[in-house]
Amino acid sequence: MTNLRILKRFLLYRICLNKFQKLGFEKVYSYTLGEEAGVTPEQVRKDFSVFSIKGSKRGGYDIKHLLASINNIFKQDSERNVIIIGMGDIGHALVKYQGFRENNINMVAGFDLDPSKYGKKNIIPVYHPDSIDKIVRDFDIKTAILAVPESAGQAACDRLVAAGITAILNFSPVILKVPDNIIVNYVNLRSELESLFYFI
Amino acid sequence: MTNLRILKRFLLYRICLNKFQKLGFEKVYSYTLGEEAGVTPEQVRKDFSVFSIKGSKRGGYDIKHLLASINNIFKQDSERNVIIIGMGDIGHALVKYQGFRENNINMVAGFDLDPSKYGKKNIIPVYHPDSIDKIVRDFDIKTAILAVPESAGQAACDRLVAAGITAILNFSPVILKVPDNIIVNYVNLRSELESLFYFI
Fold first, then answer.
1. Closest residue in B to A191 (Cα–Cα)
2. In the beta sheet, which residues pair with residue B105?
3. What span, in angstroms and rounded, lies between the C-alpha atoms of B47 and B31?
4. Taking the C-alpha atoms of B65, B71, B69 and B51 in order, what is their torsion angle to the nearest 10 degrees?
5. CB spacing of B193 vs A145 below 8 angstroms
6. What is the distance in angstroms between the CA of the first residue and the CA of the last residue of chain B?
7. What is the per-residue pLDDT across A176-194, written as a single tens digit (0 to 9) for each?
8. CB-CB neighbors (< 8 A) of B103 in chain A
9. Distance in angstroms (rounded) separating the CA atoms of residues A118 and B178
10. Which of A62, A188, B39, B123 is most buried (CB neighbours < 10 A)?
11. Closest CB from B7, B11, B195 relative to A7
């Protein structure tokens, strides 16, 4: 199974390629891309070969073609529906996050136990978690963001898996137990910040 | 130089160890910890040896001692001052994030170009970026969170480095050019979510 690490490198390559394109370049060498992304040129070529992306020895890789290939990997042209569980500060910020909204990512609904969050105060509809099953089914949703407190993380995850969610972006500081066919990507904000304190 | 990857594994170990402790355990084997954290027992032992953490062959590692060692690595008992650049939705959510507030992380100030954000609407003082130098000096701050739009990322970063910041948690979707002695940890929220769409 393709692992998350290689996929995240492709998303890093995309950031670099967009920058090169803005600067007016049309071709790129694995050396240049690797330098910008902080990986070796060998790694770049190896990653590309995994997804059968070819360049010419002399001319390098065509940036437009590379970007199209990468967008294809991540289904950029499909409607990418997502629900979000937990409408606290992080959940709320993610719903409004331009990086999602501008890139064909469709936040379908939020879920929260707190009834004061239901209704039109948010920019997406917010429901009680009892409605997860119905929304997931109606909109054929496979991806969820989990942003609930630690104590609620595993129960919310179980509920998502039972509803048919197969991919979870987890902001809750808990290691989730999931069946083998479910993919979980972790973002632990506390750890991301604290890892820096070692260097102070 | 110790890299971020090993440090993040330690922060993952901490999540697991806290869980074990809550469950009433006092000792843990590298096998058990590795299983919970999703790494091999060899990796656990190798990581521990980097920081001279020792266990006994028979009894395993003492959880309380391990947690103290990990907290020590991340200076948990010091005052850990942080500033945040960009008080948009993400910046605002991070300032209020319980995972920071509950763990001896002190958000000293926020900075934003928008004057409507200054004053008492926020739970920390918010200033114009012109004040970065003074605040960094007055509070001896080494760590900053960058949460500005892509176009403003590099300029804001340059300003932080000039002020004396040495560690940056970067939420802006831009690869920062920094001197060798500056450490940058990237959180690209769009990439974290998009990496999951491959599996759908």
1. B11
2. B80
3. 13
4. 150
5. yes
6. 38
7. 999 999 999 999 999 999 9
8. 190, 194
9. 44
10. A188
11. B195
pLDDT above 60: residue B85: yes
What are the chain B neighbours of A38 within 8 Å (beta carbons)?
A: 175
The model's pTM? 0.89
Beta bridge partners of A192: none
Residues in chain B within 8 Å Cβ distance of A23: none
ipTM: 0.89
A195 neighbourhood in chain B, CB within 8 Å? 4, 7-8, 11, 74, 185
Distance, CA of A15 to CA of B67 (rounded, Å): 37
pLDDT tier, B120 (very low <50, low <70, confident <90, very high otherwise): low
Judging contacts by C-beta atoms under 8 Å, the chain A residues touching residue B175 are 12, 15-16, 19, 36-38
Q: Measured between alpha carbons, how far is B102 from B109 in angstroms, rounded to an integer?
A: 17
Residue A134 structure tokens? 């119905």
Q: List the beta strands (DSSP E) in chain A.
A: 27-28, 61-62, 80-85, 105-111, 126-127, 143-146, 167-170, 183-186
- Report residue B2's pLDDT band, with 50, 70 and 90 as the boundaries: low
Q: Taking CA atoms, what residue in B is nearest to A94?
A: B90
Length of chain B as a residue count? 200
| Three-class DSSP category at B29 | coil
CA nearest neighbour of B107 among A165, A117, A189, A108 = A189
Looking at residue A4, what is its pLDDT? 84
Contact A194 B169 (CB under 8 A): no
**A161: how many CB neighbours lie within 10 A of its CB?**
18
Q: How many CB atoms lie within 10 A of CB B151?
A: 9
Write out pLDDT tens, residues B180-196: 999 999 999 999 999 99
Nearest residue of A to residue B182, measured between CA atoms: A199
